Write a sequence for this structure.
């Protein structure tokens, strides 16, 4: 009896307390597995989203904007030289040709103006000589007739030369504004521009003189229709008024004599 083991009397199967412990352990293992799986899923989602964020913040468009700005700047810069050419050799030669044509026309007008000056001055001086006693009436009358004989040709010649000068234009003005630094025609261009400038005051004085002469020629043409006393008063007034214009013409002519002719 003392030899029987306790196990034989009811300890062969598992006890209820051990079953509970085993169940708890299994439950804990299952919960841990779920947590691990969820963590891995979150890690996968995070690693997948990262490339998408970096793609939306890519600096690609910003980089491409810079070359387009550079291209626009280059185009604007290369267009600037197209505005040049005023002082090129070809343009200076063309402008010089136009200025020479103008000076030639102005010189012809100068000659025509000189003819009007000559005869109007002779007419006036005859009266002045008669008044101061340096000329007799016969001498004055002869000088009046001599100058009057050329009056129609004087006025016609001046009108023709004046029209021709206006038709030619003002080529010397454009040449005066050109860049002559690199032109082989620089010296000739400057001489022609200087000649045109020197002619200007003389031609202005000649225009006044020619106008006075034309007025008196018209007066002589209608002498028979004018009372002698009235004619005499007008004539003497014209002689007094003629002095400044004739003096201005002589001064301008003297100044022009020191200005060289247009080269070429």
């Amino acid at each position: 009896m003392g030899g029987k083991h306790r196990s034989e009397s009811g300890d062969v199967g598992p006890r209820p307390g051990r079953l509970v412990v085993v169940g708890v352990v299994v439950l804990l293992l299952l919960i841990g597995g779920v947590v691990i799986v969820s963590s891995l899923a979150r890690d996968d989602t995070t690693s997948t989203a990262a490339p998408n964020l970096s793609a939306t913040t890519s600096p690609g468009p910003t980089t491409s904007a810079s070359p387009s700005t550079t291209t626009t700047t280059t185009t604007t810069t290369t267009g600037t030289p197209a505005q040049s050419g005023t002082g090129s050799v070809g343009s200076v030669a063309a402008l010089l040709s136009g200025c020479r044509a103008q000076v030639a026309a102005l010189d012809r007008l100068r000659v025509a103006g000189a003819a009007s000056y000559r005869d109007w001055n002779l007419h006036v001086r005859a009266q002045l000589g008669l008044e101061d006693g340096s000329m007799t009436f016969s001498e004055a009358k002869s000088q009046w007739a001599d100058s009057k004989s050329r009056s129609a040709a004087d006025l016609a010649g001046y009108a023709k030369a004046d029209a021709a000068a206006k038709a030619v234009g003002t080529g010397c003005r454009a040449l005066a504004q050109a860049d002559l630094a690199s032109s082989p025609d620089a010296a000739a261009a400057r001489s022609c521009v200087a000649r045109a400038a020197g002619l200007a005051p003389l031609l202005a004085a000649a225009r006044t003189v020619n106008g006075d002469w034309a007025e008196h020629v018209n007066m002589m043409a209608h002498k028979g229709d004018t009372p002698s006393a009235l004619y005499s008063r007008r004539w003497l007034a014209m002689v007094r008024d003629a002095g400044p214009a004739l003096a201005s013409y002589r001064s301008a002519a003297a100044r022009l004599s020191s200005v060289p002719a247009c080269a070429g």
Observations:
- The two ends are 162 Å apart (CA to CA).
- The chain is about 80% helix and 0% strand.
